[in-house]
Amino acid sequence: MPGPLAPKPIDRILDEAGQGGTPLARTLSAFGLGCIGVGATIGAGIFVLTGTAAAHYAGPGLVISFLLGGFASACVGLCYAELSAMIPVPGSTYTYAYATLGRLAAWIIGWDLVLEFAMAAATVAVGWSGYAQSLLADLGLRLPEALAAAPGVGGLVNLPAAGIVLALSLLLIAGNRRAAGANAGLVALKVAIILAFIVVGAWHVTPSLWSPLVPANTGTFGEFGWSGVLRGAGVVFFAFIGFETVATAAGETREPRRDLPAGLLGALLVTTLLYVAVAAVLTGLVPYRDLAVADPIAKAIDAIGLGAFAILIKLGALVGLTTATLTALYGQTRIFYAMARDRLLPEAFAQVHRGTRTPALSQGLTGLATALVAGFVPIEVLGELVSIGTLLAFTLVCAALLLLRRREPGRARPFRVPRAPLVAGLGILACLALMASLPADTWLRLGVWLALGLAIYAAYGRARAAPAREG
């Protein structure tokens, strides 16, 4: 019987993906995948964390932080494109880890992906709550303080954040086609509103707010100066999380070998261009020290004083955060689906509803747990956890590409990364550098999270997965 460090053959992964139970519905095209990528990526990173990163870490140098994050994402995105086209099954990074490093590494990275997807959904939902409350305030309505924020930041529970998670979970349970259609429409509206913010804001920027581009260091590593730009890149890297959600949709794509790379790389290109433009306009409208708020773009529009346009931008932010929450919840259940098929999780997470052909039970349980996190955990803690968890996953994806190029050079690759050793190597170095820039307590939380995951594996996954490996 293969041990926990034995890689799972790719041919077996492909064979098992077509066996047993009700299959997932293959309804997604390249355009639909691109919408998933853009919908997942443009969310809290651009509408929420831009303000935090500018105020506390990078100042106007936030533009450079986004460029650094975009470079790292491009290297990783190319690796995802090759792997997803070569192994077009649900599971994304979890599956690639199983194919290269074995069951134990697959479990660790699958557990880590909970930080990337479920925690990301909770983080974006908290941002959604901030914009929703800002919009309600414009209409003269306010929630009681106890229901408006998590404990520790002035409230008892963030009710809007928990509510949006539950509502979107119900939409996903209803069916993939319905959710994808809603997502595509919301993405188009979101991009249009962001472009409007860029164009209108560009006419009102104050260039002096960009000087100095990189404020002097405060004496603490990561607070302004070039170390702050680097730390800002590590924090706003959260803004790029989402393009890899496309890879989790491999089991529901019509022509995965062709459409997955196109959807994934297209989403990454669109979002990087929008991020850099928004960062420049935002720091040119409001002094960077004043951007430490939950709704920085709304604050920038209020500074312009355009009245009705401010309401439109806040609606756009709500739309953007809605799609980001929706796709993060979607991606998490597809990771759980792959892990449950390997019996590393209870089989209930792999059950597909015969009517909707979605993992309905898994979606409901994931939505409930995520709603609790969104309602009771502050956004600063969530954002840093998501960033470090994703960077770890991205590092492994680049390493997996290098390992498979060496082990199986003759395997068909519908998409090939040009100069793969250089691109994957740069991706690994960039991700490790961004991880090193994050605060020590973030590393501590990651260590505790992974230790918890190993304990669950030892108590549950190790014994149950063994029979599934015997064939």
Explain how this protein is built.
There is one protein chain. By secondary structure, the protein is mainly α. It has a single domain (26-461), classed as Up-down Bundle (Amino acid/polyamine transporter I). The chain has helices at 10-17, 30-41, 44-47, 49-58, 62-86, 93-101, 103-116, 118-138, 159-174, 176-202, 225-236, 245-248, 256-285, 296-304, 308-341, 360-376, 379-407, 420-436, 440-469. The radius of gyration is 21 Å and the shape is globular. The relative contact order is 0.21.
How are the secondary structure elements laid out?
Elements: H1 10-17, H2 30-41, H3 44-47, H4 49-58, H5 62-86, H6 93-101, H7 103-116, H8 118-138, H9 159-174, H10 176-202, H11 225-236, H12 245-248, H13 256-285, H14 296-304, H15 308-341, H16 360-376, H17 379-407, H18 420-436, H19 440-469
Helix pairs in contact: 2-10, 2-13, 2-15, 4-11, 5-11, 5-13, 5-17, 5-18, 6-7, 6-17, 7-8, 7-15, 7-17, 7-19, 8-9, 8-15, 8-16, 8-17, 9-15, 9-16, 10-13, 10-15, 14-15, 15-16, 17-18, 17-19
InterPro entries: AA/rel_permease1 (IPR002293)
GO molecular function, one term: amino acid transmembrane transporter activity
Protein name: Amino acid permease
CATH topology: Amino acid/polyamine transporter I
Number of domains: 1
What's the number of extended β-strand segments? Answer: 0
Shape category = globular
InterPro entries: AA/rel_permease1
Organism: Methylobacterium durans
GO molecular function, one term: amino acid transmembrane transporter activity
Main location: membrane
